[in-house]
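In the lab's daily routine, each protein ends up as an entry in a very long ledger. A line of letters takes care of the sequence, but it says nothing directly about the fold. The fold becomes a row of whole numbers, each drawn from a learned catalogue of backbone shapes. The protein below has been through that process, and both of its lines are reproduced in full:
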Amino acid sequence: MYTHGHHESVLRVHRWRTADNSAAYLLPHLVSGMSVLDVGCGPGTITADLAARVTPGRVTAVEITAAALGLARDEAGARGQRNIDFAVADVHELHFPDGSFDVVHAHQVLQHVADPVRALAEMRRVTRPGGVVAARDADYAAFAWFPQVPELDEWLDLYRRAARANGAEPDAGRRLLSWARAAGFTDVTATAGVWCFAEPDDRRWWGGNWAERVTRSDLARQLRVLGATDDDLRRIAAGWREWVEAADGWFAVPHGEIVCRVPA
């Protein structure tokens, strides 16, 4: 089960993501004419950016369901981006031949899959010799914010418990290097990136989406299964709004990043 679900409060955040703010570590490895596989493409904003950078090369966008893939189709259509192909596939068993792509990319995917090592091994299999496998994932345990609103501590504990109940690993960022090694990669560059929300508009957007997410999305249902009451969720949402209104409010979301080179 995908912990976040596809409520509009989730999709607003996903659509905000671009190659520049979410895949900058990968961009130096891209050149015109490359073939790229974008695993777990979501609504396709990063996908379309990657496709623009590798034109006349092609990007194949993959999602686990046709409904989820439809969001990326819509984004590509709205942009008039014609060098994107679409496929329903599971990252644990990609239905592409060995060595099909120059670059295989996954953003915020490995934290949600049942077996991230197997997923990376599959990503490696479909990458040509000399190509690159790249992944970026948040690390929830390393999230930091100010002021220290108690309800946000409660939110983080509940989210991490919900993710693990789904067989996911919310603190994936710090594990990417170890997972890559376990998948057989020996040439790995590990880095970190951060999203920071401190400007008033950024706080309203980030905190407002989370306040809505904990009360109205699929995540809210999962938190209730863990024992949170509706009153608890409303209180946590109010904590998010309190943080939004703090003039000195600040929130950092750290990510682990890996670029894995497949031997030539």
